[in-house]
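re: that chain from earlier
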Amino acid sequence: MRLSRIYTAQALTVDGVAELEGQACHYLARVLRVSAGDPVTLFNADGRDYMGQVFEVKRQSVKVRILSVRQPGNESPLKISLVQAISRGERMDYSLQKATELGVARIQPVTSSRVEVRLDEKRADKRLAHWRAVVVSACEQSGRARVPDVGAPMSLNEWLSGPGTSESLVLDPLARQRLSTYSIQSDAVSVLVGPEGGFSEAEIRQIGSAGVAAVSLGPRVLRTETAGPAAITLLQSMAGDF
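^ sequence. v structure.
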């Protein structure tokens, strides 16, 4: 039987019982059709996997007894923050999903002048909840026990004026330096990815004035949903994660 990994926000302890409801219950009971005695792994983003066994399946809940705990040890030594210009629908989902699978530590959605998606407060809250669910699902699939934080959408100006906590790079196809030759000087780096139409010339100047280094990914122009995962892959390889 396939060993499933399920995220839950509740505290987990060895010999304790976790009661799974809602979507987790539906997936286990209706999709996988688990029964008493089946193994299941739970995680709650504390960096550990909790191996358990199903002991009760009801219509609205599945109960799991925690038998043991372990640390997967699969987080990257380089803490990468993806600062992603918001794109439409599945493109944004793809960016977040693949970035999570590749080991990104944090994701910050941003808006800029050429971002076509406009979110009012209600829509922004709804999209944020959806994006966080995409990231959780990617963690379940990829075996990660830490869930990358997804920040509330902010403007490019807000991000540039915020407190800098790491080295910052912007992907620019016209940059003279390639990412493959860039030397990371710390254990944390932020990667800024523009929208489908790229950043405007004024934004590029603003980004450069804020101390963000421009790097390219090579001779071809990548789509916004491809650029972020490609950069993360290269950075992880440089850091020894791959």
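Residues 4-70 form a domain with the Ribosomal Protein L25; Chain P fold (CATH 2.40.240.20).
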